[in-house]
Amino acid sequence: MKRFLETGNFAITEGAILGGCRFFCGYPITPATELAEAMSLRLPQVNGVYLQAEDECAAMHLCIGASLGGMKSMTATSGPGFILYADPYGWALGCEAPMVVMNSGRVGPVSGITGAPGQGEFYLTRYPTQGGNFETITLAPNSAQECLKIIVEAFYLSERLRMPITVLGDQLLTDGMEDISVPENDDEMKEMGLRVWPRLYHKGPDFYPASDALDIPPVQMGYDTGALCSDWTPTVEGYDIEEVEEHHKHAYRLIYKVRNNPQLYEDFYEKKYMDDDPDLVVVSYGTPSRVVNTAVERARSEGLKVGALRLINLWPFPDRHFSRKTKYLVVELNWDGQLVREVQRAAPKDAEVKFLGCCGDLPTIPDLMETFTKMLKNQPLERKGWVLEAW
Amino acid sequence: MQYQSSALVDDYLRTRKIPSTACSGCGLGINHKVVIQAISELGLKTKDIIWGTAIGCAGRQTFATWKGDGFAGTHGRVYAIARGLRVALPRDKKIVLTVGDGDAFGIGLLHLIHAARSNAGFTVIVMDNLGYQSTGGQFGFTTPQGAKTDSSPYGMFEHNLMSEGMDVMHILKGAGATFLARHTATDGLAAVESVKKAISNNGFSLVHMPYPCPTNFGSRHLGNRNAVNILRWMQKHTAPLGQEKPDTIWATGVYHDARGSRPELSELVWDSVGKIRRTGKL
Amino acid sequence: MKDRLEIVASGFGGQGVVRLGQTLGEAAVKQGLRVTMLKSHGTEMRGGYVRSQVVLSQKAIDSPMCETPDVFLALSSSAYNRFKDTVPAEGIIVYDPAFVEEIDASLPCRQIAVPAKDIAVRNFKRPIFSNAVALGSLAKLLETMLEKNVVLESFLEVIPKYKDENRNAFEMGYETMNI
Q1: pLDDT tens for residues A134-168?
Q2: Do B and C have ≥3 inter-chain CB pairs under 8 A?
């Protein structure tokens, strides 16, 4: 095991390589540029290819092409680039091309603030493309070390479920530095719980069975199997067809291969002080969860019965964590409240669900402590005021 | 009536897609056959070619016609998919893309230019049916100027990529394409020869192949759906390069032949990766 | 040793604030500690403000934010004014009087002046070595947590140029710091 003081981007790069990634195509955008740079340095050293595309839409399409040709591929961007993935993301879902997509969230809408963290794409990662009739998987690590593990896992899931997997981070996660341990051999990988699934190819002729089964290999070009894949609704052999019954089978597979195999991703969460039915559960994901964890620890030391639930697997949304009637506080890096809506939906109707938003900067521990106290005392929460400060 | 298949069909095409769902009198089949004949004359087998298509008449009608492996990309992006695929596939596999004019010269032009720029080793056959026909007949960017279509009821008056001295081939040549040719559907064997050169090029090739759409273009612009009428009309406006007349719309022949002049994308990539691995630098 | 040590260094672009934080982090990694380091830039790489926030601990670190820094190195007036109030009574502010002209005497914490720029210019005729001086002074403060020679070794790795000057400047900073 080698230890480094390095960025989340470094961890993602090393994780991708450990997961078998040998093709990366990107387009420069803050704060994902450093990841592209790291890939351009590292991939050729391991017989991998780095290419820069004319835009993000092309970048993910190049990844689709490489994936169809048998290479494990990845692309990375930030919010303004992620929306340009809408086109290829749909193709990759529909044609079931495995790949990994990294989104390092910054402050939006549009270009917003480039160098500050945001969480404005919670729902966008669930619905990254048009048309519906699919299920998506999004994983959100909160540390550099976890980035490495989650990227390896994303490649693993993408192969077994033959689909793109989104890893959602933010600017602090990818740019921030931390001590990182990188395994140097298979034993060390096992020790760290890292698993890899090889790229296999579908021998046909039924490339698209109406089945939720795992481990149907992806359609690959170049093996002369007569493989077909297209943006149209496929028959089981891959021919384009305009019939609702065939479409139903197709949609069934895309939705239920994910929903019916939750064992693959449902263990990705972290609970802290959650064993004694806390009076208040603080829900978060990504970098803000680290401040939440510190704040909850502080709250416990002051006798407040507060627990922290951190989601790593964001989609499919893990409803089962919210079955208990209690108070929930959802902390997010946006002002509009996105995760909180899902928590409201999943929690019992009479549960109290509140939202603490901020954007561009992490919430502070005093802010969190004050909110915990108010909620526990049934006091109303105030909207956070804007303080103008001269820098 | 039983469809009588020719030797070319037996060797290369899937019978499931025959007869196609194309309109009566559609010229796409003429161009499609030109491409298959070129492949046959080059002695290539189904395993040698991965066939990609795009959206619209050309994409949908040619998708899954090839007996070997085939894919269809999203509208305008197949040139980006093909670049990634090119890098991943073994060098002896060829990629042929049959796409429409809207796909190549409209929505996909940026990606097409970058495919030419990187000299990506595949052949783009632009099956130009004079506009957006699968959506009912709107003008495209190589639709002849003045043409009446559903979206140009007074005649198409915008500047486009095929008139006033402009030619989409200028753009592609400037971008670095290493083989460019144009043939209308009435060019016959000359078109086969150009497609052979295109496919044998180890680099980016494009053959622009305008063909008649009697159903939409013929009925709106020429006043009837007679297939012979629109073929004659196209022939009248076609002339070999260098022999253009004032009413020539399509100058045909090999526009640019620079085969072998620049390294191909995937070769360049893998040679560079190999060098970096061995020596740590380029 | 404290459970969690927070160090903030802030100044303007080009002063080496990020490298300084990185050096402390590298040294901590070498000693088997857990580390987080956030670097934040203002709107511009140069001329805007730069801040690095380093957290050191023997346990896994949750929040990477330095909300109550144990040590705050201020290398510009605006940085000083922006973060001085976050330093708790038991914390220490280290500032360079060449950049921080006015000191808030009402603060509860200790404030130590390290004339890093002066020392650099006097001895090496170049202000770029002031971050080595500042780092040396921090190394003295952090001695109970980080070994001085590990910090120096890490610094020479992070900035491989001008090794002799940087080493000397570091030592001068170390000697200047009186605790």
Answers
A1: 999 999 999 999 999 999 999 999 999 999 999 99
A2: no
- Taking residues B3-22, what's their average pLDDT? 85
Summary mean pLDDT of chain C = 93
Structural domains of chain A, with CATH: 2-191 (3.40.50.970), 270-376 (3.40.50.920)
Q: Is residue B11 part of a domain?
A: no
Strand-pair partners of C110:
C92
Which pairing describes strands A306-311 and A280-284: parallel, antiparallel, or unpaired?
A: parallel
- Judge contact between A37 and A13, C-beta under 8 A: no
C2 in helix, strand or coil? coil
Q: How many residues are listed for chain A in this entry? A: 391
Judged by CB atoms within 8 Å, which residues 78-117 of A form the interface with C?
115
Domain count along chain B: 1
> Hey, are the CB atoms on A54 and B111 less than 8 Å from each other?
yes
Query: C-chain residues within 8 Å CB-CB of A391?
Result: 42, 49, 78, 82
Query: Would an 8 Å CB–CB cutoff place A175 in contact with chain C?
Result: yes
pLDDT grade for A389, boundaries at 50, 70 and 90: very low
**Separation of alpha carbons A58 and B77, rounded Å:** 7
pLDDT tens-digit profile of A104-141?
Answer: 999 999 999 888 899 999 999 999 999 999 999 999 99
C158 has pLDDT over 70: yes
Tens-place pLDDT, residues A54-76: 999 999 999 999 999 999 999 99
What is the CATH number for B229? 3.40.50.970
ipTM above 0.95, yes or no: yes
Q: Whose CA is closest to C150, among C35, C5, C30, C9?
A: C30
CB of B54 closer than 8 Å to CB of B128: no
Q: Is residue B6 part of a domain?
A: no
Task: Give the Cα separation of A264 and A249 in Å (integer).
Answer: 23
Backbone angles phi, psi at B255, to 5 degrees: -85, -35
Interchain CB distance below 8 Å, B17 and A73: no
Structural domain includes residue B152: yes
pTM for the model: 0.96
CB pairs under 8 A between A and B: 140
Task: Calculate mean pLDDT across residues B143-148.
Answer: 95
CB-based contact A110:A80 (threshold 8 Å)? yes
Cβ of C63 under 8 Å from any chain A Cβ? yes
- Domains of chain C in start order, with CATH, are 4-114+145-160 (3.40.920.10)
Which of B61, B69, B86, B112 to probe the A interface (max A CBs under 10 A)?
Answer: B69
Q: How many angstroms separate the CA atoms of B71 and B236, rounded?
A: 36
d(CA A123, CA A113): 20
One-character DSSP codes across B128-185: E-SSBTTTT-B--SSSPTT--BTTBTT---S--TTSTT--HHHHHHHHT-SEEEE--T
Q: Which residues contact A250 (CB under 8 A, 6 or more apart)?
A: A94, A133, A208, A210, A233, A234
For residue B241, the enclosing domain spans 20-279
Residue C149 sits at the chain A interface (C-beta within 8 Å): no
Q: List the single residue in A115, A294, A364 with the smallest CB-CB distance to C62.
A: A294
Task: Give the closest-approach CA distance of B277 to chain A in angstroms.
Answer: 5
**Chain A nearest-CA residue for B95:** A222
Q: Among B63, B269, B270, whose Cβ lies nearest the Cβ of A240?
A: B63
pLDDT, tens digit (0-9, with 9 covering 90-100), for A227-279: 999 999 999 999 999 999 999 999 999 999 999 999 999 999 999 999 999 99
State whether A178 and C35 contact (CB < 8 Å): yes
Q: How buried is A128 (Cβ within 10 angstroms: 0-12 exposed, 13-18 middle, 19+ buried)? A: buried
CA dihedral A369, A370, A373, A379 (to 10 degrees): -160
Query: Residues B18-26: what's their mean pLDDT?
Result: 90
